[in-house]
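Section 3.1: Structural characterization of target chains.
Under the original work plan, the team committed to producing a structural model for every single-chain target entering the pipeline before any wet-lab resources were allocated. The record below documents one such target. The sequence was received from the expression subgroup and is listed exactly as submitted; it comprises 88 residues.
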Amino acid sequence: MNGECVPTGRLTVSPTADESLRDPAAGQTNDLTMRPITGCEELDLSSQLPYFLNEELVDDLARGRRRPEWMRVALRGDRLLATAAWRS
Protein backbone atom coordinates (compact mmCIF):
# COMPACT_ATOMS: atom_id res chain seq x y z
CA MET A 1 0.00 0.00 0.00
CA ASN A 2 1.17 3.54 -0.54
CA GLY A 3 0.51 4.49 3.10
CA GLU A 4 -2.73 6.28 2.32
CA CYS A 5 -6.01 4.48 2.55
CA VAL A 6 -9.15 6.56 2.41
CA PRO A 7 -12.62 4.97 2.34
CA THR A 8 -14.62 6.28 -0.59
CA GLY A 9 -17.97 6.60 1.13
CA ARG A 10 -19.47 4.44 -1.64
CA LEU A 11 -20.60 0.90 -1.03
CA THR A 12 -19.56 -1.41 -3.83
CA VAL A 13 -19.76 -5.15 -4.19
CA SER A 14 -17.16 -6.69 -6.43
CA PRO A 15 -18.19 -9.86 -8.27
CA THR A 16 -14.56 -11.04 -8.36
CA ALA A 17 -13.52 -14.08 -6.38
CA ASP A 18 -17.11 -15.34 -6.23
CA GLU A 19 -17.14 -18.39 -4.02
CA SER A 20 -20.84 -19.24 -4.02
CA LEU A 21 -21.61 -22.37 -2.06
CA ARG A 22 -23.51 -25.23 -3.64
CA ASP A 23 -25.00 -28.38 -2.18
CA PRO A 24 -25.37 -30.65 -5.20
CA ALA A 25 -26.72 -33.52 -3.08
CA ALA A 26 -29.69 -31.40 -2.06
CA GLY A 27 -30.04 -29.90 -5.51
CA GLN A 28 -29.88 -26.42 -3.98
CA THR A 29 -27.72 -23.38 -4.55
CA ASN A 30 -26.84 -21.10 -1.66
CA ASP A 31 -26.34 -17.50 -2.76
CA LEU A 32 -23.85 -16.79 0.03
CA THR A 33 -20.57 -15.31 -1.20
CA MET A 34 -17.46 -15.20 0.96
CA ARG A 35 -14.47 -13.30 -0.37
CA PRO A 36 -11.63 -10.97 0.63
CA ILE A 37 -12.14 -7.24 0.28
CA THR A 38 -10.53 -5.73 -2.80
CA GLY A 39 -8.70 -3.02 -0.84
CA CYS A 40 -9.28 0.14 1.15
CA GLU A 41 -11.97 1.17 -1.35
CA GLU A 42 -14.21 -1.49 0.27
CA LEU A 43 -13.67 -0.47 3.90
CA ASP A 44 -17.08 1.22 3.86
CA LEU A 45 -18.62 -2.11 2.94
CA SER A 46 -16.74 -4.12 5.56
CA SER A 47 -17.50 -1.50 8.25
CA GLN A 48 -21.29 -1.60 7.78
CA LEU A 49 -21.54 -3.89 10.79
CA PRO A 50 -20.78 -1.96 13.99
CA TYR A 51 -17.58 -3.07 15.69
CA PHE A 52 -15.33 -1.06 17.97
CA LEU A 53 -12.19 -1.78 15.90
CA ASN A 54 -13.65 -0.49 12.59
CA GLU A 55 -11.94 2.87 13.19
CA GLU A 56 -8.52 1.17 13.24
CA LEU A 57 -8.84 -0.52 9.84
CA VAL A 58 -7.58 2.40 7.74
CA ASP A 59 -4.42 2.81 9.81
CA ASP A 60 -3.87 -0.95 10.06
CA LEU A 61 -4.01 -1.30 6.26
CA ALA A 62 -1.70 1.69 5.75
CA ARG A 63 0.88 0.31 8.21
CA GLY A 64 0.67 -3.26 6.89
CA ARG A 65 -0.79 -4.72 10.09
CA ARG A 66 -3.73 -5.91 8.01
CA ARG A 67 -3.92 -6.83 4.35
CA PRO A 68 -7.00 -6.91 2.11
CA GLU A 69 -6.55 -10.66 1.57
CA TRP A 70 -6.77 -11.11 5.37
CA MET A 71 -10.12 -9.28 5.52
CA ARG A 72 -13.21 -11.25 4.46
CA VAL A 73 -16.84 -10.37 3.86
CA ALA A 74 -19.83 -12.69 3.66
CA LEU A 75 -22.55 -11.37 1.34
CA ARG A 76 -25.97 -12.45 0.24
CA GLY A 77 -26.50 -10.37 -2.86
CA ASP A 78 -25.57 -6.81 -1.84
CA ARG A 79 -26.34 -7.45 1.85
CA LEU A 80 -23.38 -7.77 4.22
CA LEU A 81 -23.90 -10.68 6.63
CA ALA A 82 -20.54 -10.99 8.36
CA THR A 83 -16.92 -9.87 8.37
CA ALA A 84 -13.72 -11.46 9.56
CA ALA A 85 -10.27 -9.91 9.69
CA TRP A 86 -6.87 -10.97 10.91
CA ARG A 87 -3.91 -8.77 11.76
CA SER A 88 -0.24 -9.26 12.42
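Residues 10-21 have pLDDT under 50 and may be disordered.
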